[in-house]
Specification:
Chain lengths: 305, 257
């Protein structure tokens, strides 16, 4: 009797044919997914590795801080580099407050009505508009109608319109991550919506909001089409090393457009220069993204519930 | 009867969420300084009724009400009623403890701070208020060295007591509780019930509960609701022992869910 149950128990836990097959499939699937994950990182590593390898001969502080020379066949990228910074910063200064406060209104104040539904629909659709269409809109609205001319301001505002829906979406996401119960607690103590937002909702969503905004830097910096018609130019030398060299009503150079022109429009450019330009563009974007991650981690450590 | 004996009175109160009628002609008087429990199956309007009394329902979107609600004899739909003041007087405790993600100290002071002019509270005052509030919920000894810790990291029982303590500095008259013990273990439940018994008298309690034993233990009066209607409202013992209405009898004798 005793030995019989022992044998039965042994049998019970030995692997059956089906079990073996399941284990095989499990392993294969796991390895497959792992390979897919690696494939995702691979292009990034290859691109950056290749760019650095090709750009190495020209990369130096001098490259960053001097203007293009000799019809852009030599020299550095100071004018486009600073131009990109101007355009990105001004566009974020315009888009971030509008986007964040609009999202706060939509999420914290507005009730479900025809108005909010239209706004939400507009946000979704605006996000899907191709950038070249934004460029045409910017040309009509800011360059011509508002009379800013082709300028940093017009280009920035065009980029702002383009990034706005994404900022609204990411801010909404961050606000929704704050549990409803906190709001209920505040309301039931007689807090106004603003007191609730100011004291509880914003402090607990600010990391998400800021990350969402900062991630738009990379989009704004990389876009060529929206700024091409609205403010970015082929060639415009500025005072080297002077960070106040542009006025926002000036036209400017920009890294993305510069990369396009020297790769396609100018013959006989030294090979390293386009790669150097690309690496500066990618590098600054990655740097900003890294800063966003650090900021998020820092703000997260201060929030626990 | 003299109005002063009732903290909450409603007259033919009906409420709709969009097209769905959640409350149907509810008329009820809640006695001052006692504990009244609201029982009934899920989704029959208990929480909705509770939320009417500080008008926080209106923050949840498409809500329409009809009828009259008087708190302390005052119609809360009168145009001179400030919602923010109303919510000070009528506090709410929730099913899941919801302390704010700030320190224990600031949780207690939160209500007071939002109702006081900026920087009008000095440190000695606030220290006193916090000690008093925590003492009344028997938390002072446990938490006096943890005033700076985040309230969200406390044990659930402490969190729920803190949520009650958080109301006290605002000197509420009525405390509404929406299944305040359902997230707590039996020890926590007893502790919160004991606390309610001690505080009753100074405050009027209205408590929604699914736990009939709890309703029997803590409440002086008991209301049975079913599908948005008030079926029966009597002294707790009478309601449980000799229910007048057949639906009430079915429910309290567990013949229903």
């Amino acid at each position: 009797m005793n030995s019989k149950t022992e044998i039965a128990a042994q049998d019970m836990f030995t692997e059956t044919a089906v079990g073996k097959q399941n284990r095989y499939i499990e392993n294969i699937v796991k390895i497959f997914f792992f390979i897919m994950t690696c494939l995702m990182i691979l292009p990034l590593l290859l691109i950056i590795g290749y760019l650095i390898y090709k750009a190495l001969p020209v990369l130096s502080f001098d490259f960053l801080l001097s203007n293009p020379q000799d019809n852009m066949r030599a020299g550095g990228i100071w004018a486009p580099f600073l131009g990109t910074i101007y355009v990105v910063v001004v566009s974020l200064l315009a888009a971030a407050p509008i986007g964040v406060f609009a999202a706060v209104y939509l999420n914290e104040y507005a009730r479900d009505s025809w108005f909010t539904r239209i706004v939400n629909l507009a946000v979704v659709n605006l996000a899907g508009v191709p950038s070249i269409v934004h460029a045409l809109f910017g040309l009509g609205a800011f360059v011509l109608f508002a009379g800013f001319g082709e300028s940093i301001l017009a280009a920035s505002l065009t980029l702002a319109v383009m990034t706005l829906p994404v900022i609204i979406a990411s801010t909404t996401e961050a606000l929704k991550a704050v549990p409803m119960s906190f709001r209920e607690a505040c309301w039931n103590l007689g807090a106004t919506r603003w007191q609730t937002i100011r004291r509880i909702v914003l402090p607990n969503s600010i990391s998400g909001i800021l990350t969402g905004v900062i991630l738009q830097v990379s989009r704004a910096a990389g876009e060529t089409a929206p700024i091409m018609f609205t403010g970015a130019v082929f060639y415009k030398p500025i005072a080297e090393g002077d960070i106040f060299a542009y006025n926002i009503f000036d036209q400017c150079m920009a890294l993305s457009l510069h990369l396009y022109t020297i790769s396609t429009q100018v013959p006989d450019v030294a090979e390293g220069i386009p790669y150097g330009t690309a690496i500066v563009l990618v590098g600054s974007v990655l740097l900003v993204n890294a800063a966003a991650i650090v900021l998020r981690v820092y703000l997260r450590t201060r929030k626990k519930w | 009867m003299d109005t002063n004996n009732f903290s909450i009175e409603t007259e033919n109160l009906s409420l709709w969420y969009g097209d769905f009628q959640a409350l149907i002609d509810v008329s009820v008087n809640i006695p001052t300084g006692k504990i009244t429990s609201l029982i009934g199956p899920s989704g029959c309007g208990k929480t909705t009724l509770l939320r009417c009394f500080n008008r926080v329902n209106e923050r949840y979107g498409n809500v329409k009400t009809k009828g009259e609600i008087k708190i302390l004899g005052k119609n809360i739909y009168d145009s001179d009623v400030s919602l923010l003041e109303l919510r000070k007087t009528v506090g709410m405790v929730f099913q899941r403890p919801n302390p704010l993600p700030i320190s224990v100290y600031e949780n207690i002071l939160f209500g007071l701070r939002i109702h006081s002019p900026f920087r009008s509270l000095n440190r000695t005052q606030t220290d006193e208020i916090v000690e008093e509030a925590l003492t009344s919920v028997f938390l002072w000894d446990d938490l006096k060295d943890k005033l700076k810790t985040r309230a969200t990291s406390l044990q659930l029982e402490q969190q729920q007591k803190l949520c009650i303590a958080r109301l006290l500095p605002l000197k509420p008259q009525v405390i509404l509780m929406d299944e305040p013990c359902s997230a707590l273990d039996s020890k926590g439940t007893l502790a919160v019930e004991e606390l309610m018994s001690v505080l009753a008298g100074s405050y009027t309690f209205l408590i929604v509960t699914h736990n009939m034993a709890q309703a029997k233990r803590v409440s002086d009066e008991c209301i049975y609701m079913f599908l948005g209607e008030l079926i029966e409202h009597r002294e707790t013992q009478a309601l449980f022992e000799t229910p007048e209405h057949e639906k009430t009898a079915d429910y309290v004798q567990m013949r229903y869910g």
